[in-house]
Amino acid sequence: MMLFGEKYGDVVRVVKAGDFSTEFCGGTHVSNSGQLGLFKIVSEASVASGVRRITALTGTNVIAYLNKQENTVKAVASSLKTSENDVICRVEALLGESKEKDKEIQNLNAELTKLKSADMFSKPLDIDGLEVYTAKLDGASPDALRTMGDDIKAKSDNAVAVIAGVNSDKASIVAVCGKNAIAKGVKAGDLVRQVAALAGGGGGGRPDSAMAGAKDLSKLDGALSAVEEIVKSLIK
């Protein structure tokens, strides 16, 4: 039998705790707990169903551990330009400020996206009475793309829009179609699926709104350029 990575011989030490448990001993032996000196639990984890294991330090190792923790707190306090007692308050304040700045950035990005979209979507391409829009925006999130698409769709039942948003090495593509476009056979799910396929991606969705991903960014511009022909091919 093997426990804790150790091989046991014919004679083993057994630890019995009343009528509760009788186990092979897999630890260091001491005559009494006073020999351990200081005792500090540093972690605990589940090792099996209903079984948890603790990791602890004893004796002078506890002092070394606490000294290291104290030095860490001092270093953090110094970096935050605050006292050791106020480290937690300072960290919480910084986290709050960070969240507020994130909100401000999101709001500014939303406003910037609106400005860009107002310029890009001012002159649609007319295809059999449908108003077809295409655009590529750097840094636009999927949510921002959906919002832009919904805004365009709400303005005209003839609207057909394909908008791509590029973030690092990924791209999301949103397609929307108004009621009249759908009636003519141009459905957002079919449209975005074909466009994304040209850039090595895929996706789909409802006739009025759909989303896909593009894997090959080098082919994204070409995929957007193909929107005109794809729309023409979908019209019944």
What would you say this structure looks like, in words?
- By secondary structure, the protein is an alpha+beta fold.
- The chain folds into three domains: 2-58, no CATH class; 65-111, no CATH class; 122-234, Diaminopimelate Epimerase, Chain A, domain 1.
- The chain is 41% helix and 29% strand.
- The protein has seven helices and twelve strands.
- The strands form four sheets. It has a six-stranded mixed beta sheet, sandwiched between helices.
- It is elongated and about 95 Å long.
- The chain starts with a strand and ends with a helix.
- 22% of the residues are buried.
What order do the SSEs take from the amino end to the carboxyl end, as H and E?
EEEEEEHHEEHEEHHEEHH
Report the sheet-strand fraction.
25-35%
**What is the CATH top level name of the largest domain?**
Alpha Beta
Q: Helical region count?
A: 7
Average pLDDT over all residues:
88
Distance between the termini: 75 Å
Overall outline: elongated
Overall domain count: 3
Biggest pleated-sheet summary: 6 strands, mixed
Low-confidence region ranges: none
Decide which structural class fits the backbone: alpha+beta
Approximate helicity band? 40-55%
What value does the Rg take, in angstroms? Answer: 32 Å
- What is the level-2 CATH architecture name of the largest domain? Roll
How many beta-strand runs? 12
